[in-house]
């Protein structure tokens, strides 16, 4: 339905406005949209009346489409000339459908009708204001709800921020605890590794050289070890920091600097006159309540020791003192054992036609001294007895037992016993004298009137015999068991020809045995080295031959002592004289 009204005066505008409002209500336009339509239309008509002339107001409802039914109001000029185009004013609102007015749509201009229309418009305005009041109340409610929500959000943010700070604090504390644990673990690992390195050596000089290597640069910029002499003399050597002298005399660590150290168990001292700008930590190397020396440290660059560092360094110094004391005791015992060992070894006899050369080398590592021995002496019938042996164990006890075996052997040899019989008697002697000690030995007998060699072995590495032409034989005929074991045995003799130019090598296992290889490869190396010696050298200088034989067989360091006895029948002699010349 389309309606059109001609507007040229304010009365026409009021009638058209009232009719349009009724028509919109009839087509189901909502109160809010109708109030908006009337308000906008009134403003537009007022502008049109201001411009003057005549105007056409058209209202119609469109059919339902994809967007629903629409109610359209259009205002155009009624004064257009033919062919003139002017853009009409349009306003559209939604409606529920097409409706009809109860009359022709014309509104009378009498005051009563206009008043009634005015009151009807006020009703629409009242309905709109009521809705606005409801919307305002709803907005107020939502605003309050939003305010409360904002307050809750702010409180939640504050709680989250506090929780975040607490979590960061906990994380920082955890990181600090982890760093402290890692640092403590590092100190303990360093202390354990350093202690193992210090106690692994039994050389005091090596321990003194090792300490700075361990501490610099991780825990010190410089490290100096001041050892006292055997009488505890503090005055020897160059000038020392006063704090080091105080540490030695008091037996307590001292810290010398221009500021207090605050280190546990450490006394503070004025800065050292030798290095006033550098802090010094002087820790005595204690053992059994007496200082062996003083360890003086300066802190790493741009760093200071904390309490944990000081405790660790003091403990390391204590362990270094124990290691030094053990090394000194070891050297003392080693010197005693070696002195006793060398005092007990025999001075070889001079025998025409037979050269003898012996070597004894103590172990370079460990207290492995005292078990190896050699001897050479004549029997009443003129035979020459040569013997080499090894007592199990090391140290003074082994050296004393070796001396007793040597004395017993010389006593038994007076009866003219053969090598096998002599070893059998030594076996019984050792078994009854020291049931918990054992020994190995080889005895070789050179006959005075015939070029033969008789030998017997008891658990010992076999002798090696070099023929005049350089061929080498390992004399490994059936040996006896070790001397002193709880076993009855009769040790057999063995005999081989011994022409002039022959050389016999007797030795202990320290010369040929290596842990990683066993003993057989070492015996092969000894046989090869003996075969390579020149006959002229053997005849002319047996001492030099012994040194040449040892050189390729010994390592720089060996864990066992070594004995070697070379017996050479000089060329051009058919026999060994029956008496000494």
Task: Describe this protein with a few key phrases.
five-stranded antiparallel beta sheet, alpha+beta, 581 residues, 12 helices
Radius of gyration: 60 Å
**Number of β-strand runs:** 19
User: Counting H and I runs of at least 4 residues, what is the number of helices?
Assistant: 12
The assigned structural class equals: alpha+beta
Helix content estimate: 40-55%
Summarize the SSE layout with pairings.
Elements: E1 2-7, H1 10-26, H2 31-51, E2 55-61, E3 70-77, E4 89-94, H3 111-200, H4 204-215, E5 222-227, H5 242-250, E6 254-256, E7 267-269, E8 280-287, E9 290-298, H6 307-344, E10 354-361, E11 372-378, E12 384-391, H7 396-413, H8 419-433, E13 439-446, E14 452-458, E15 464-466, E16 472-474, E17 494-497, E18 503-507, H9 509-512, H10 520-531, H11 535-540, H12 542-550, E19 562-569
Parallel strand pairs: 6-7
Antiparallel strand pairs: 1-2, 2-3, 3-4, 5-9, 6-8, 8-9, 10-19, 11-12, 12-13, 13-14, 14-17, 15-16, 15-18, 18-19
Helix pairs in contact: 1-2, 1-3, 2-3, 3-4, 3-6, 4-6, 6-7, 7-8
């Amino acid at each position: 339905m389309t309606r059109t009204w001609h507007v040229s005066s304010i009365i026409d505008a009021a009638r058209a406005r009232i009719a349009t409002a009724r028509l919109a209500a009839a087509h189901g336009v909502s109160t809010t949209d109708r109030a908006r339509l009337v308000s906008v239309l009134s403003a537009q008509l007022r502008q049109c009346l201001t411009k003057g002339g005549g105007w056409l107001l058209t209202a119609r409802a469109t059919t339902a489409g994809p967007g629903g039914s629409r109610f359209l109001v259009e205002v155009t000029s009624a004064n257009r000339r033919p062919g003139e185009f002017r853009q009409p004013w349009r306003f559209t609102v939604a409606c529920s459908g097409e409706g009809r007015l109860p009359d022709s749509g014309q509104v009378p201009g009498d005051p009563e009708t206009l008043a009634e229309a005015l009151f009807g418009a006020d009703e629409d305005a009242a309905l709109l204001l009521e809705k606005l009041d409801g919307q305002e109340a709803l907005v107020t409610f939502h605003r309050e709800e939003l305010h409360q929500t904002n307050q809750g959000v702010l409180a939640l943010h504050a709680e989250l921020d506090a929780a975040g700070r607490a979590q960061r604090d906990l994380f920082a504390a955890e990181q600090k605890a982890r760093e402290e644990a890692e640092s403590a673990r590092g100190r303990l690992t360093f202390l354990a590794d350093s202690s193992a390195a210090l106690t692994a050596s039994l050389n005091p000089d090596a321990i003194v050289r090792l300490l700075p290597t361990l501490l610099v640069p991780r825990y010190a910029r410089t490290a100096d070890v001041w050892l006292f002499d055997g009488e505890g003399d503090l005055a020897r050597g160059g000038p020392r920091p006063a704090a080091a002298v105080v540490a030695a005399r008091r037996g307590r660590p001292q810290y010398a600097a221009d500021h207090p150290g605050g280190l546990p168990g450490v006394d503070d001292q004025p800065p050292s006159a030798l290095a006033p700008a550098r802090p010094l930590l002087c820790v005595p190397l204690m053992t059994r309540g007496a200082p062996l020396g003083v360890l003086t440290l300066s802190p790493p660059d741009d760093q200071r020791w904390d309490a944990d560092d000081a405790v660790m360094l003091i403990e390391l110094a204590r362990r270094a003192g124990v290691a030094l004391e053990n090394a000194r005791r070891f050297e003392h015992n080693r010197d005693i054992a070696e002195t006793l060992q060398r005092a007990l070894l025999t001075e070889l006899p001079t025998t025409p036609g037979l050269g003898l050369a012996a070597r004894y080398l103590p172990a370079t590592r460990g207290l492995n001294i005292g078990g190896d021995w050699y001897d050479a002496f004549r029997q009443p019938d003129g035979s020459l007895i040569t013997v080499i042996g090894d007592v199990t164990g090391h140290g003074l006890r082994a050296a004393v037992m070796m001396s007793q075996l040597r004395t017993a052997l010389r006593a038994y040899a007076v009866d003219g016993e053969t090598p096998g019989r002599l070893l059998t008697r030594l076996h019984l002697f050792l078994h009854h004298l020291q049931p918990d000690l054992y020994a190995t030995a080889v005895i070789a007998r050179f006959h005075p009137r015939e070029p033969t060699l008789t030998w017997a072995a008891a658990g010992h590495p076999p002798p090696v015999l070099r023929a005049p032409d350089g061929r080498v034989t390992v004399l490994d005929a059936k040996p006896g068991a070790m001397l002193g074991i709880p076993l009855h045995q009769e040790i057999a003799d063995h005999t081989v020809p011994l022409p002039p130019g022959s050389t016999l090598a007797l030795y202990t296992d320290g010369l040929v045995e290596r842990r990683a290889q066993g003993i057989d490869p070492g015996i092969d190396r000894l046989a090869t080295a003996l075969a390579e010696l020149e006959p002229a050298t053997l005849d002319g200088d047996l001492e030099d031959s012994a040194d040449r034989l040892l050189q390729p067989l010994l390592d720089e360091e060996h864990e066992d002592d070594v004995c070697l006895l070379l017996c050479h029948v000089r060329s051009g002699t058919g026999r060994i004289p029956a008496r000494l010349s």
